[in-house]
Design goal:
The chain is built from 3 helices and no strands. It is mostly helical. The chain starts with a helix and ends with a helix. Helix content is 87%, strand content 0%. Helix 1 (3-13) crosses helix 2 (15-35) and helix 2 (15-35) runs antiparallel to helix 3. It has one domain.
Length: 76
């Protein structure tokens, strides 16, 4: 199973992974809204930085879950 198929499988079958994807998409939506502005206030710049970091943490966590699932499948 390639990584794209595995992600789709986990979205369908793993509640934690599905929640992480949902949060990740929510952060991406907020970042897109900030990027669409012609000017960001200092607070918005801070928010953008925080959102990018949170998004990265979620991505890393999703990657760990993917690798765990791959490891489980290779053992069986």
């Amino acid at each position: 199973m390639n990584e794209v198929d595995l992600k789709d499988y986990l979205i369908e079958n793993d509640q934690e992974f599905r929640q992480l994807v949902h949060q990740h998409q929510g952060y991406e939506t907020k970042l897109r809204e900030l990027r669409d502005k012609s000017f960001l206030s200092e607070q918005e710049q801070i928010e953008e930085t925080v959102l990018k970091k949170k998004k990265l943490v979620l991505k890393d966590h999703m990657q760990v879950l993917i690798h765990q699932h791959q490891s489980e499948k290779s053992v069986h």
